[in-house]
Amino acid sequence: MSHPYPIREIARQAGVSEATVDRVLNARGGVRQSTIDEVQRAIADLHRQRSQLRLTGRTFFLDLVVDAPARFSASVRAALESQLPLVRPATFRARFHLAESPPVAELVATMDGIARRGSQGVVLKAPDHPVIVAAVDRLAVAGIPVVTLVTDLPTSRRSAYVGLDNRAAGATAAYLLDQWLGDDGGAVLVTRGTGSFRGEDDREMGFRATLRSLRPERRQVDLVDRSGDPEALRALVCDALAGDPEITAVYSLYATGGNAAIVAAFADGGRRSRAFVAHDLDAENLALLQSGRLSAVLHHDLALDLRRACHVVMQTHGALPGAPHSWHSAVQVVTPHNIPVEALLASS
User: Fold this and answer.
1) How many domains does the chain have?
2) Single pTM value for the model
3) Taking Cα atoms as reference points, which of 82, 108, 107, 105 lies closest to residue 94?
4) Could you tell me the CATH number of the domain that includes residue 9?
5) Crossing angle of helices 198-214/166-181, nearest 10°?
6) Sheet containing 91-99: which strands, arranged edge to edge?
7) In which region does residue 18 sit, left (phi positive, over 0), alpha (psi from -120 to 50) or beta (all else)?
8) Is residue 268 domain-shared with residue 201, that is, in the same domain?
9) What phi and psi values does residue 217 have, to the nearest 5 degrees?
10) Can you give the residue range of the structural domain that contains 7?
11) pLDDT for 199-251, tens place per residue?
């Protein structure tokens, strides 16, 4: 396995011993496949972060633990790595633990493993579950600050939250749909996943409260996607539309994914939503927005969120002045006419 990195650096990146790395690199056997994969990922991470290795100063190892669909995890990884060369005065090295809908026990095992190996900080996107809250508290006891990303764990001992103001985002969606629908009748279909993510809960609460305030007579039709499969979601939306001819608009709470299936379900029924608000400007939503299938996308600067997470970690360790605190990103309303240049470049 060709590489230019010292065994010590690979071991620190992978969170394993130098002897284990040596066995993997020299194919001596006696090492689990999962550990071999971890060493290979560590070398790939070092290659992407090689500009950081040339910097001097205090080094912080940051563990990113994300429960999300693969494309959102990829966006988080890219956003963090884009910020690593910009964070000063420290040098940051990132280790990634990315999974889609893993069992809660698996997430907890990952977090407890980080506590045993050591880290300068954890950036976490995970469901609001009591055992995950307890694992966050154990990290805090071990002196490892946790920064929640996109979705919060407010009852835990996390150091700070960085990400979208989810309740404000839900209220913004209600306001926009009310402006587009006006005095006309019609119900709003609100779709979400089945995970217990606080961020989606906050979006729904902000939406519901604002919709009731602006237009008490307008109905909200809730649909929970329990499978995460686009075709299953398409069938669910088809059933909802067949049973309720008054549905004329959509608010999608999903972090990523599912919106193309919702659009297809409307087409299956020979209908088209009068307004459709979604979250996050990923490749799918960008295409739907450009084609006029989405009315607006509620977006925020993920790279800035992750830079702020690094600042929180440095503040916790006394490398930056000030006390750690949460940062709520502004809600950006993106239409086909103000798509950020970086989103267009990323899709090209």
Assistant:
1) 3
2) 0.81
3) 82
4) 1.10.260.40
5) 40
6) 91-99, 59-67, 121-125, 146-149, 160-164, 327-329
7) alpha
8) yes
9) -80, -10
10) 1-43
11) 999 999 999 999 999 999 999 999 998 877 889 999 999 999 999 999 999 99
